[in-house]
Amino acid sequence: MSTYTGACLCRGITFTLSGDPQAVFVCYCTDCSLNAGGPFQITARFPSPSLQLHDPENLKTVYTVTSGTVSGHPKEKHFCGRCGCTLFTVPLKHDREIVVMRTAVIEGGLERFRPQAELFCKRRPGYLRPCEGTEEWEEMPVAK
Ligand SMILES: [Zn+2]
Ligand SMILES: [Zn+2]
Q: N or C: which end of the chain has fewer CB within 10 A?
């Protein structure tokens, strides 16, 4: 089984992921954009048991986004309380069965995990081109 490692910006929190992602998306929605401080986030969905966190200084902080989420259900944003780096989100509509990792915090993740689709393309800034070989969705694909 593949194993991946990663860390937050200050490296106070590190993690390993076992297995490969179920899906990889570019997302231009407002939450992703604000959270990234840029046009989009690239996220990879893993089953929750894949993720092993190492947080010896107890730095991990959780902010729950309760209103205005795309799914209509709350989602938890898990980030480092020291450096502010977001590591993953947990969409509560999936009963904590999945974690949505930012591929940027996975070592080599941006190159390794190629997005299969782009979501909320209607919010993509006019100066950016679509990713090569991805599906484009104006908003969110139905039933995802
Ligand atoms: Zn940190
Ligand atoms: Zn998004």
A: N
> How many angstroms does the Cα of residue 102 sit away from the middle of ligand 1?
14
pTM of the model: 0.91
Q: 84: which 2 tokens?
A: 């502010």
Q: What is the pLDDT of residues 114-127, one digit of tens each?
A: 999 999 999 999 99
Q: Is 139 helix (H, G, I), strand (E, B) or coil?
A: coil
Position 144 confidence tier, pLDDT thresholds 50, 70, 90 = very low
Q: What is the DSSP letter of 143?
A: T
Question: Cα of 3 to ligand 2 centre, how many Å?
Answer: 25
Q: Choose among 63, 45, 52: nearest CA to 17.
A: 52
